[in-house]
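User: I'm new to structure prediction. If I give you an amino acid sequence, what do you actually give back? Let's try with this one:
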Amino acid sequence: MALSAFVGTLGAGKTLGLTWRAMIAHNQGKTLYSNYKLGFPHYTIDHPDQLEDIRNGFAALDELWLWMDSRASGDQKNMFRAKVLAKSRKRKIEIGYTAQNLMQIDKRIRNVTDTVYAPYLPHNPEKCLDCQFHPTRHYRHPLSGETMSFCGKPIPVVIEAYEMIGGNFGAVKFIGRTVVNAERIIPLYDTTEEVFEDDVDSDAEGDY
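Assistant: Good question. You get back a string of structure tokens that encode the predicted 3D arrangement of the chain. For your 208 residues, that looks like this:
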């Protein structure tokens, strides 16, 4: 079991990447948990206290920084949530989460994150027939800092994977990349849905 982070700026495709990973888990017959709506069966997590109850499956947690802000790492709630997430291996639960950058996440979670996925939308004038209608924008790679350009239209998304060695940015090792058809993934979630912080009673129940 593992913790995986999907990092990137707004519109880079991190929620799309997380949904892609959740779809893979669904196709593998795993039980799914999510704090945002998915287009396939899953249990809803609408309060961080519910993390204590998840077992055996895959959990997709969008905008985890809202629940685990590094600026409040000494907060008792954060300590509880970090402890719960760190137990994921014993509970046989794989957790994927998104953040604009890893420094938003409490260091206790960064220390046990195994894989970082960096999605981005590539711009290739030779293959993208719509480029003439969608101005090229620029994007800074979430790990390398390299400036990249991409088309504004949802097209195949590149998801690079990096292994975290030593925890908390001890080292990162590139392990591969995957090209995902964005047009197949986007209908599986609501791109306008917002995840809120601690605004639901802790005894809220998930639905299937």
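You can read the tokens as a compact description of the fold. Here is one thing that stands out. The chain has four helices and ten strands.
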